[in-house]
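Memo to structure team: turn this sequence into structure tokens by end of day. - J.P.
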Amino acid sequence: GTPRDIKLAGAWFSEAAKGGPPAALFAAGRMYDLGEGVPVNQQRAIAYYKEAALKSDASAESALATYFYAGDQVPQNFVTARKLFNDAAVQGHPDAMFNLAVMAARGEGGDKDLSMAFVWFSLANASGHPNAAAALAAIGPTLTAQDRSKANAILKPPAKS
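Reply from structure team:
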């Protein structure tokens, strides 16, 4: 029933973020990140994302991880990016699962671990990530028998008796 007003939405998200709810902080950060209703201000976006990430908001953790991965507005730091992607992935964030898998497959920010990359690509695929099926098809043939066994133990644990 009401017309879309992005500027007003931006003002409300910014006001809501002052109270500190993680979802409001993330929404305000996204508005500044994308310039929706407010001028693009990636430093302000990062500040909102950081505050929301400290409160375990998965979307904010993933967004902040992307900045650390790219190194555009903050110094590039693969270790921090991988930790943030992991924190968001364990909460079920599909993009974080996918990005964590990429980092594990490449050995960025930690050890190269093809079995865990396969696990995270599988979980991202099950969560509907659009690129996960292709990534699984690409990484699957590169797994050793030991890698596949480790991945299967995580993805298909034996039933408890």
